[in-house]
Amino acid sequence: MQREGGDHDAEPVESVLDELYTAPPSGFVALREEHAKAARTAGRKEDARRIHAARRPTLAAWAANLLARSRPEESRRFLDLGQALREAYRTLDADGLKELSAQRRSIVSALSRQAALLAREAGHRLSEAAQREVESTLQAVLTDPDAAARWAGGRLEGSLTPPSEFPPDTVPAEPAPRERPSRARTPAAGRAKDELAERRRKRQQDVARAEQAAEQAERQLRDRRAEHADADSALRRTGDELDRARGEVSSAERRLRQARQRLERAERERRESQEREHSAADALDRAAHEAREAARQADRLAGRVE
After folding, report:
1. Is the pTM of this model over 0.85?
2. Cα distance between residue 46 and residue 52, in whole Å
3. Sign of torsion over alpha carbons 297, 300, 305, 306
4. What is the DSSP string of 227-257?
5. Is the model's pLDDT at 217 over the cut of 60?
6. From CA 208, how far away is CA 214, in angstroms rounded?
C-alpha cells in the first residue's frame, strides 16, 4: 500500500517539473521554491527534494524545451526524421549523404526560427548566440539518440552539442578497392552482389522516409507560419479597432465634461436669477408697505387739516 501511495505522490512532481522547464527562466527560481515549499508543507519530502534540485535552464535550453512542448506533432516528426537520418548515414553513399545534409540544415534552421518565435511570444528575445545554441541542440537531436531522448523529455538545462564522431557535413570515405575475386570464389561474389543490392534497396527506403519526414516538417512549419501571420493580422486589426474605440470614448468623455460644465453654469445662473428674483420681491414688498404707510400718513394729515 505504501508503494501505491508513493506512485500516486510521484505524479504531481512530474507535472511540476514539466511546468518549471517550460516557464520563462526569469521566474524559474521563484516558481521552483513555491512548489518545493508546497510539497514540504504537504509532507512530500522526496518530491520537495527533487523540485528543489531542479536547475534553471539557459535561455536557449528553455526555448528548445518550449519547442518540444508547444509543438508536439512537429517535434515527433523531427524525432522520426532524426531516426531515419541516423540509419541513412550508416548506409548511404556520398551523394545521398550530401542531399540529406542539405535537408537536415534546412529543417534545423526552420525549427530554430520556430523556437525563437515561441520565445519572443513568451516575452524573451533570443540573441544570436542563443539561437546558435538552439541549432546545436537540434543538430544533436538528429545525430544522437541519447540527445533525442533528452530533448523529447522537455527538461533540458543547457544546450546540447552534436557528437564529434558524427560531423554535420561530412560523408564517409569511399571504400578501398577490393581484390578481384577468383573463379573459385564466384558464389561468394554472387552473395556479395545480392547483399549490395539489398543495401541499396534499404538505402532508398531510408532516403524516402527521411525525405517524407522532412517534407512533413516543412509543411507543418509553413502551416504554423500561416497561422501566426493570420493571428498577427487579426491582432493588428483588433489594435486598430481598440484605438478607434479609445478615441471615441475620449471624445465622448470630452463632450460629457463640456455638457457637465454647461449644466453647472446653467444651474449657477439659475440660482443667481432666483436670488435676484427673491431680492426684487423683497424690495417690492418693502416698497408696497412703505407706500401704504405713506398713504395712511397722508390720510391722517388730511383729516387734521379739515
Report:
1. no
2. 10
3. positive
4. HHHHHHHHHHHHHHHHHHHHHHHHHHHHHHH
5. yes
6. 10
